[in-house]
Amino acid sequence: MDVQLCQMVGQMEKVGCLINFLVNSPAGTWFMKSIDASDTIKNGENMFKYLDEVVEEIGEENVVQVITDNASNYVNAGMRLMEKRSRLWWTPCAAHCIDLMLEDIGKLNVHATTLSRARQVVKFIYGHTWVLSLMRTFTKNHELIRPAITRFATAFLTLQSLYKQKQALYSNVLLRKMTTVPLVSVLREVDSEERPAMGYIYELMDSAKEKIAFNCRGMERKYGPIWRKIDARWTPQLHRPLHAAGYYLNPQLRYGDKFSNVDEVRKGLFECMDKMLDYQKRLKADIQLDSYDQAMGELGVVL
């Protein structure tokens, strides 16, 4: 059975750090074990040992990919793991990567100003009982999303909440909302457990960029800086062969009118096949891929 090893990090009451190892497979997701890494969390060598031990325990032949946070210690550990375990992939967490994109976008001057004002408005409302009571009267008890320190996406969700409750609050809230909501939607998708995101993340990111450009009325001076912030994270962190392969092998997208059969997509697919299949299985996969591309046999049946 192919399994996907997912590793996540959570703080423990700000006095330590626990690393939780979760394993995901077609049978579902389950907790494997937890390690107190309070004294070693910043050490890439120790992180490599932790990951390697878990892969060894599960069996390298059963592991498709190892997913971790995007911090430098995890990057170092993940790259070393791929060097030792040639048939598996290390992949940075998509949700964390998109969250960092939103952080970078939030630092752009026009966004930073609007976000700062939004935080001040929300802080004022929730800091004064009579104002809060008045707001709840007019919003019919709908609450505003309050900015959080740990997740950058909440800042943009706060803007969306403010705009929803009073459209005329700020004229530039609309622009900030329209240029970030597509990315927040991707974050929600990859953070959701409704369906595996691997086969959709490639298409979701391309679609989000197109929507941002459309919302900016195609004016490069408006969407260009945002695209560059996205690409700065996407290209080195999320633009992975597994995501390209997942996109190609997703029949919902492969047989769709908007499927993009560009060289980088096929290259990613072939990299995965070369890495994960021996010679005989690769030959068989090539034949099956031809049938898949041409929708032959049962693959051509419309459901």
TrEMBL record:
InterPro entries: DUF659 (IPR007021), RNaseH-like_sf (IPR012337). It holds the Pfam family DUF659. Residues 17-121 form the DUF659 domain. This is DUF659 domain-containing protein.
